[in-house]
């Protein structure tokens, strides 16, 4: 296989009548999905899309998002997938940088962006995925493919040719486009099929956004001939209902969704049956050992933690279900995934001894081609074939990786290096009273910088700021305790579990205002 669409073609040949995708009450067999992809490729070709061209998709999860990726691959074009949680203005700014001439919009996304499309600076061909938004020149997706001649010929691509462009989370500014090649994605699919133990009878519940790199699991499911169910809700009762209704065997979640799921299952007092669920793969944010133990107890399935990033097409290290049974490993992100080389380096690029923190670096065939139109930043993070993740961590003697914090998050308090994520993890380990936490550095006249903790506590919890400070001082030492603790209702994590920088800045301003008042 050289082209990403080859995985669909092969599965359609092997089991054409098997259900491949379910979405909004509709089911699509492999043969049906292939036919829709071929017609979509024909429609795009008739509108001038050729090898190397870009198209853009701005939509929440839907079956059409998957069809668009494969149709672009058929033509050798690149499918750009946009985060629908970005502001309309930022999305327009990204489109302005893009080469895409055709944009596929969900109706709500188009309605939200109508007034900003002038910022793009060029005319766009608009395709609406469903009825529901008004545009004089728009084409409806289903009409477009119904009228199209199927494109059966697959473009001649090299493994290094780009297939997909995903955007980073943009927690520190305008997101960067990450280009992933056919070869990188096909290598990733083969790795994940093996490492994450996919089998032919798997039924995957797709909860996380398809515009994030977690979408790789969708292609793995179709590669092994499994069934994909696209969830319409991330609420725990709806996830449970989908698991029971469709016989879901695996899903991918971020920890704050896991927390809601385990709370719901525990409160059901045995009324919920998740018996067919084999695995939950999670990642995207730190998770407390307390939550993991609750999940193992109440969810009754294997847990896999994946640590990775968009630039590496997903996980570079994993903690397996068996390793979750060892309490001492729950603070790690596991060992290097097969096909990945990991090392921890100091500022000069030399490997750090085991147990010594440094920057996590990885060498892998799943690495991005580069950042879109940003050779300078690409050269900063990829050196001699190694991708510098920007994360600070250390390896132990057995090869388990512990991630301490982002390199850019390190603060210096009284001459001591402190990583906020270490303090946040300490606060999470206080138990069920802490639902979520973020720790940041703030200016301090005496120490230069000190720590502030923003804590989401359980309803009716008696937890006080002094309790948090005392716990950190006891567990980590006085210089790592937060000088300020602010209880908040929510941390506004995005779909990948990260907290937008703008929200953190708002919280810091709120805290500093309280100090002044």
From TrEMBL:
Signal peptide: none annotated. Pfam families: AMP-binding, AMP-binding_C. Residues 432-498 form the AMP-binding enzyme C-terminal domain. It comes from the Bacteria. Gene3D superfamilies: 3.30.300.30, N-terminal domain of ligase-like. Residues 8-372 form the AMP-dependent synthetase/ligase domain. InterPro entries: AMP-bd_C, AMP-bd_C_sf, AMP-binding_CS, AMP-dep_synth/lig_dom, ANL_N_sf, ATP-dep_AMP-bd_enzyme. PANTHER family: LONG-CHAIN-FATTY-ACID--COA LIGASE (PTHR43767), NONRIBOSOMAL PEPTIDE SYNTHASE PES1 (EUROFUNG)-RELATED (PTHR43767:SF1). This is Acyl-CoA synthetase. It comes from Raoultibacter timonensis. The lineage of its organism: Bacteria, Bacillati, Actinomycetota, Coriobacteriia, Eggerthellales.
């Amino acid at each position: 296989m050289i082209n990403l669409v080859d995985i669909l073609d092969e599965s359609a040949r092997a089991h054409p009548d098997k259900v491949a995708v379910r979405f909004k009450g509709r089911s699509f067999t492999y043969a049906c999905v292939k036919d829709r992809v071929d017609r979509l490729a024909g429609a795009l070709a008739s509108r001038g899309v050729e090898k190397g061209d870009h198209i853009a998709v701005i939509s929440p999860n839907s079956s059409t998002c998957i069809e668009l990726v494969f149709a672009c691959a058929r033509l050798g074009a690149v499918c750009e997938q946009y985060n629908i949680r970005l502001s309309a203005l930022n999305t327009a700014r990204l489109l302005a940088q893009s080469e895409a001439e055709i944009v596929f919009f969900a109706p709500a996304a188009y309605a939200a962006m109508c007034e900003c499309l002038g910022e793009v600076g060029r005319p766009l061909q608009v395709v609406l995925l469903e009825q529901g938004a008004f545009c004089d020149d728009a084409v409806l997706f289903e009409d477009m493919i119904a009228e199209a001649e199927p494109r059966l010929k697959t473009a001649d691509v090299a493994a290094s040719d780009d297939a997909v462009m995903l955007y980073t989370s943009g927690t520190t500014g305008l997101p960067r486009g990450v280009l992933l090649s056919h070869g990188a994605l096909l290598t990733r699919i083969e790795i994940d099929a093996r490492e994450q133990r996919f089998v032919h009878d798997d039924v995957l519940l797709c909860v996380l956004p398809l515009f994030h790199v977690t979408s790789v699991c969708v292609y793995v499911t179709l590669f092994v001939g499994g069934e994909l169910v696209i969830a319409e809700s991330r609420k725990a009762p709806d996830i449970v209902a989908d698991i029971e209704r469709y016989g879901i065997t695996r899903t991918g979640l971020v920890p704050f969704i896991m927390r809601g799921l385990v709370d719901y299952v525990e409160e059901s007092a045995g009324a919920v049956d998740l018996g067919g669920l084999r695995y939950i793969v999670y990642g995207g944010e730190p998770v407390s050992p307390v939550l993991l133990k609750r999940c193992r107890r109440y969810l009754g399935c294997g847990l896999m933690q994946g640590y990775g990033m968009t630039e590496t097409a997903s996980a570079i290290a994993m903690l397996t279900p068996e390793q979750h049974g060892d309490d001492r490993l729950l603070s790690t992100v596991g060992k290097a995934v097969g096909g990945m080389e990991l090392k921890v380096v100091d500022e000069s690029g030399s490997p750090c001894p085991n147990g010594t923190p440094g920057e996590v670096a990885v060498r892998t065939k799943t690495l991005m081609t580069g950042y879109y139109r940003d050779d300078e930043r690409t050269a900063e993070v990829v050196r001699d074939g190694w991708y510098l993740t920007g994360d600070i961590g250390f390896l132990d003697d057995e090869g388990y990786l512990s991630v301490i914090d982002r390199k850019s998050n390190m603060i210096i308090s009284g001459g001591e290096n402190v990583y906020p994520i270490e303090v946040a993890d300490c606060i999470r380990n206080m138990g069920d009273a802490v639902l979520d936490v973020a720790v940041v550095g703030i200016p301090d006249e005496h120490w230069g910088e000190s720590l502030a903790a923003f804590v989401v506590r359980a309803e009716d919890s008696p937890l006080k700021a002094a309790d948090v400070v005392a716990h950190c001082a006891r567990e980590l030492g006085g210089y790592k305790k937060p000088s300020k603790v602010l209880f908040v209702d929510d941390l506004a994590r995005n779909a990948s579990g990260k907290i937008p920088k703008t929200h953190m800045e708002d919280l810091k301003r709120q805290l500093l205002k309280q100090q002044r008042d």
